[in-house]
Amino acid sequence: MLELMLCSLLTIFPDYLYRRFAQNKRIGREITLYTMWYELRWGISACLLLTISLITLIFYFHPSTKSVTAVFRTVTILPETVGRVDQVYVGINEKVTAGAPLFRLDDSKQKAEVETARRQVAEIDAQAHVAQTELATADSQIQEAQGSLQVAVDEYEMKVQLLAKDAVARREVQRLANTIEARKGTLGAAMAKKQTLITQINVLLPAQKQSAEAALAQAQVELDKTVVYAGVTGTVQQFTLRVGDVVNTMLRPAGILVPAEAGRGNLVAGFGQIEAQVMKKGMIAEATCIGKPFTIIPLVVTEVQDVIAAGQLRPTDQLLDVQQLSKPGTLTVFLQPLYDGGLDNIPPGSSCIANAYTNNHEALADKNIGVAQWFFLHAIDAVGLVHAMILRMQALFLPVQTLVLTGH
Question: Which UniProt keyword terms apply here (predicted)?
């Protein structure tokens, strides 16, 4: 409407002045409702052409959008296990810091598993002490076997000498030889038992202890999971959990944690696809938000998403028809305040209106620029001023429009 009024002042109004004062035609006489088109045909035609050209220049080289939001992400409060709530530490809309406990589940089962794993570690330590005692017993048995073997060997050697003089029976010598072999076997068994105990002390029991300690650590981790902590600093919202409630990681979250800095650093805007050729990183923009009325916020384009979200394809078990993607999507643009504190006092999630302005300063500073191009670029900058005026008028009427639409 503002563009039409501006173009009328430049076309229809001068045409009417010419008809009125140069040709002495008056409204109600020569210029009537029926003759208006014929009498003001040149001004009306020029007004329509100029309006269309002005709107095209404004919305192409200085794009505007009402799809601007201070987008923020929330953190779902969920335990890592299913259980019944045993204790709640925070309330609704309470501010918490990162690492603060939120609630605790019933941990009787986990505590029992921790105690069982701890007793297994103690049992293995006891087995190690017993093995050390058995190792000392094995050393005594080896010494005893060695002594018995030496006695048998000495007696055998003596009997062999007597056998040469026919002083003893050959059967007695053979019996002593068998005794020596038996006592060698006893000594070997004692030494094998000692080696077994050494292996058990140095290899088996440490491995069993490590497994028991790992089981204890796992049980402790499961016990720690029963207490849910805040992952970030923020505000707890929709937290209606009470003692006795059953929390399920798939079906029932406990609440939502809104990070303290969520949605306060930038704005996310969705511009039309036709502006994909003019939207560039570093462009200057302006915005006005419902949450901060009567205020124009200077912004800068920090990132332009190089894909259109409406064309996203997610494989399913049905063959996709391209006709289902016929609805055009928007070009996602990220905006940040040009000056520090520009987005202060704007609640996350606020709806805004934004304009972006092309920069032609480098082209105008070129000494080889043509006259036609010079006039064209200046015309683009001029319509940018018009667009800025439109945004300021919207900043004035946006709160009133919002109140009317919401029924207040």
Answer: Membrane, Transmembrane, Transmembrane helix
